[in-house]
Design a protein that fits this description.
It is found in: Cell membrane. The chain is of the alpha/beta class and about 270 residues long. The chain has helices at about 1-35, 65-75, 85-95, 110, 155-165, 175-185, 195-205, 235-245, 250-260, 265-270, and strands spanning about 40-45, 50, 55, 60, 80-85, 100, 115, 120-125, 125-130, 145-150, 170-175, 190-195, 210-215, 220-225, 225-230. It has a 5-stranded mixed sheet with strand order 11-10-12-9-13, sandwiched between helices. Strands 5-1-6 form a 3-stranded parallel sheet. The chain is globular. Bound molecules: arginine.
């Protein structure tokens, strides 16, 4: 009697282990189906913009990447993230060959004509990167200097606001790292780009002897996830972003990357 009980106990244990393993699998499938349509979204970026997106051993990494993964998971979607370059991010979303863009993209009225944006997820502003011994001390000082920017960014717009739209002194590059290289190799006097990016660059490259200049005349900018116009994803992702704001996930990712707490209330005020 005892023997049989022991044997059947082992059998029941093994059998229930097997069941629970199957259970986990089918649950996660059902979960995906329940929340989203279980589709893997094609997410495009320009991974030349650390700490938001950069390449590490063939993989796209950064704050934006961790953020978009967390939000997509919350919304019930898997994502496949590909670095396609800055202009192609816009082209692919316009032609709908990608589902969403994450690329430290500033929400602005001009882009809103062609694309939909999520609620804001990051506060940014322009700053100026110059060699340590530069006499440039403010945005005003950029007039008459050669300014390198990434093409079709709000950095270019800011430079145009100061130097004039068709100024020959504005040098435009396909990505921000090329703009910085132009300055460090002497082809430009300054770079105008998003504060976090140039601060990170100056900090990580102390041997290049650079400094970052801030100027109150540069406006606040807010990053959003970008979708093709009328994408049904916008609503789902807005909901998921608010979810990760409220459940601590956003703060965790933010603190991992920036070592300070995010001002979530400030972002929410913009909704
Ligand atoms: N925030 C700026 C803009 O939207 C620059 C973004 C550049 N991002 C990038 N991954 N290269 O225009």
């Amino acid at each position: 009697m005892k023997k049989i009980t022991f044997g059947s106990l082992i059998f029941i244990l093994a059998f229930s282990l097997l069941l629970s393993a199957c259970g986990t699998q089918s649950n996660s499938g059902a979960e995906g189906e329940k929340n989203g349509d279980n589709k893997t979204l094609r997410v495009v970026t320009d991974a030349n913009y650390a700490p938001f997106e950069s390449m590490d051993k063939g993989e796209v990494v950064g704050f934006d990447i961790d953020f978009v993964k967390a939000v997509a998971e919350e919304a019930g979607y898997a994502v496949k993230i590909e670095s396609v370059g800055w202009d192609p991010v816009f082209a692919e979303l316009q032609s709908k060959s990608a589902d969403l863009g994450v690329s430290a993209i500033t929400i602005n009225d001009d882009r809103k004509k062609t694309y939909d944006f999520s609620v804001p997820y990051f506060l940014s502003t322009q700053k100026i990167l110059v060699p340590e011994n530069s006499d440039i001390k403010s945005a005003e000082d950029l007039k008459g200097k050669r300014v390198a920017v990434q093409n079709a960014t709000t950095g270019q717009e800011a430079a145009e606001g100061l130097l004039g739209k068709n100024s020959k002194d504005i040098k435009k590059f396909d990505n921000n790292n090329l703009a910085i290289m132009e300055m460090t190799s002497g082809g430009a006097d300054a770079v105008v780009a998003d504060n976090t990016v140039i601060e990170e660059y100056a900090k990580n490259n102390p041997n290049q002897k650079l400094k970052v200049i801030e100027d109150d005349t540069f406006e606040n900018e807010y990053y959003g996830l970008m979708f093709p116009k009328d994408s049904e994803l916008k609503e789902k992702f807005d909901k998921a972003i608010n979810e990760v704001f409220d459940n601590g996930t956003y703060s965790k990712i933010y603190e991992d990357h920036f070592k300070i707490e995010p001002e979530i209330d400030l972002l929410k005020e913009q909704q």
